[in-house]
Write a structure and sequence with these properties.
It is built from 13 helices and 11 strands. The protein is of the alpha+beta class and about 375 residues long. The strands form 3 sheets. Strands 1-5-4-3-2 form a 5-stranded mixed beta sheet, with helices on both faces. A 4-stranded antiparallel beta sheet has the order 8-9-11-10, covered by helices on one side. A two-stranded antiparallel sheet has the order 6-7. The protein is globular. The N and C termini lie far apart (about 60 Å). GO terms for molecular function: carboxy-lyase activity; pyridoxal phosphate binding.
Length: about 375
C-alpha cells in the first residue's frame, strides 16, 4: 500500500505541475488542520439551528457565511445560507428557492420547470436584446434567471444591472428571482477596479460561489447565500435531527467550512485583492505572449480566463489539462499559475506549433477579431 500511495503522490505532483485549464487554486497549505482529520465532522441540518449531533463545525460554517454576507452586502438578520458540496449544488439550491418563492412548491421539489435558453454575445455574456424578446413571450409567468458571474468557457460576466433593467422595462417588476452563479468570479469581482457590484442591495435572490476554485480548498465545496425570507417556504422541521431541513443534501462535509474559515481569515480582504490583481496581470501577460507568437487569443474584461485556438495535438491538450470546447481552448489563471509556469507552457506550445503548422499559420479564424478587439498582433487577424 505504501508503494501504491507513493506512486500516486508522484502522479499528483506531476499533474499539478501541468494544470492550467480548470479553475482550481492549487496553492494552499492547511498543515495546521491535520490535527482534525481523525474526526467525522458532519454539519447536519440548518447551520443556524443546534441539532442533536454534536460533532459538527457549524460555528465555522456561520463564520464563513458572515464573511460572504459582508462581501455581498446583506445584514446578518436578513440572510440565510450554508456550505454546499460544490458550485452546482449552489445553483440547484438557488433555483429551488426561486421556485419555492413563487408558490409552486411541488414543482420545486420535482424540478419540473420550463427552461428557456437565451442567446449570448460573442464574448459569452447574456444577450439582453434576445432576453427581452423571450421574456415577452412568457409574460404570464414570473421569471427565474440564472446570471453568470464568469462563464465556464470564456469567463464572461453577465451585466446584472442590464438584466434587472430589461426585466423591469418589460413588466416583470416584482415578478422575478435572480440567482447569481459566481462559481469562480463571485469572489474575484469585488476586488476588481471598476467592476460592477454583485450585492443584495440590488433585487437579487441568491449568490453562490465555489470554495475549491479561487479560495483554494482540498475538497470540492461552495457557499450559498440567499435571503432569509425565502427559506421559510422551502424548509421543514426534522425531528430526527432536531433541526430544520433547508439544504439539498442531508449530510454535509464538516471539514470544508473549517478549511474555508482558515484561509479567509489568514488572507483577509487585502490578501484576496492582491491575488486577484496578480491573476489579472498574469492573464494579460499570457494573452499578449500568445498573440506575439501568432496564436489567436482573447481575454474578456474582468476575467482571468484566456481563450485561444485549440491545439490540434490531443496529447498536448491532456498534458496541460486544457479545457476545450469546439475549436477553442482556455487557460484559467489562478493564484498558483505563476509567470514561470506560463513561460514553460508557452515555450512548449511555440516549439510544437512549428511542427503542427509548418506553413506558418492555422486555419482557425481570429478569436480577438470576433470580439472586436483592436491592436491584435496575431497572424490570424482577419478584420
Amino acid at each position: 500500500m505504501a508503494s501504491v500511495l507513493a506512486r500516486y503522490r508522484r502522479s499528483l505532483v506531476e499533474r499539478t505541475r501541468h494544470h492550467l485549464g480548470y479553475p482550481y487554486n492549487l496553492d494552499f497549505d492547511y498543515g495546521e488542520l491535520a490535527q482534525l482529520q481523525h474526526f467525522s465532522i458532519n454539519n447536519l441540518g440548518d447551520p443556524f439551528i443546534e441539532s442533536n449531533y454534536g460533532v459538527h463545525s457549524r460555528q465555522f460554517e456561520v463564520g464563513v457565511l458572515d464573511w460572504f454576507a459582508r462581501l455581498w452586502e446583506i445584514e446578518k438578520d436578513q440572510y440565510w445560507g450554508y456550505i454546499t458540496n460544490c458550485g452546482t449544488e449552489g445553483n440547484l439550491h438557488g433555483i429551488l428557492v426561486g421556485l419555492s418563492h413563487y408558490s409552486v412548491f411541488k414543482a420545486a421539489r420535482m424540478y419540473r420547470m420550463e427552461c428557456v435558453k437565451v442567446d449570448t454575445l460573442i464574448t459569452g455574456e447574456i444577450d439582453c436584446a434576445d432576453f427581452g424578446k423571450k421574456i415577452l413571450l412568457n409574460q404570464d409567468k414570473p421569471a427565474i434567471i440564472n446570471v453568470n458571474i464568469g462563464t465556464t468557457v470564456k469567463g464572461a460576466v453577465d451585466d446584472l444591472d442590464l438584466v434587472i433593467e430589461t426585466l423591469e422595462n418589460n413588466g416583470f417588476k416584482g415578478r422575478f428571482y435572480i440567482h447569481c452563479d459566481g462559481a469562480l468570479f463571485g469572489l474575484m469581482m469585488p476586488f476588481v477596479k471598476r467592476a460592477p457590484k454583485v450585492t443584495f442591495k440590488k433585487p437579487i435572490g441568491s449568490v453562490s460561489v465555489s470554495g475549491h476554485k479561487f479560495v483554494g480548498c482540498p475538497m470540492p465545496c461552495g457557499v450559498q447565500i440567499t435571503r432569509l425570507e425565502h427559506i421559510n417556504a422551502l424548509s421543514r422541521n426534522v425531528e430526527y435531527l432536531a433541526s430544520r431541513d433547508a439544504t439539498i443534501m442531508g449530510s454535509r462535509n464538516g471539514h470544508a467550512p473549517i478549511f474555508l474559515w482558515y484561509t479567509l481569515n489568514r488572507k483577509g480582504y487585502r490578501g484576496f485583492q492582491k491575488e486577484v490583481q496578480r491573476c489579472l496581470r498574469n492573464a494579460h501577460y499570457l494573452r499578449d505572449r500568445l498573440r506575439a507568437a501568432g496564436v489567436s487569443a482573447m481575454l474578456n474584461e474582468l476575467s482571468s480566463t484566456v481563450v485561444f485556438e485549440r491545439p490540434p495535438d490531443e496529447e498536448f491538450v491532456r498534458r496541460w489539462q486544457l479545457a476545450c470546447q469546439g475549436s477553442i481552448a482556455h487557460v484559467v489563471v489562478m493564484p498558483n499559475v505563476t509567470i514561470d509556469k506560463l513561460d514553460h507552457f508557452l515555450d512548449e506550445l511555440v516549439a510544437k506549433r512549428a511542427a503542427w503548422f509548418p506553413a506558418g499559420g492555422s486555419q482557425i479564424p481570429c478569436i480577438a477579431a470576433d470580439v472586436g478587439e483592436e491592436n491584435c498582433a496575431c497572424t490570424l487577424h482577419r478584420c
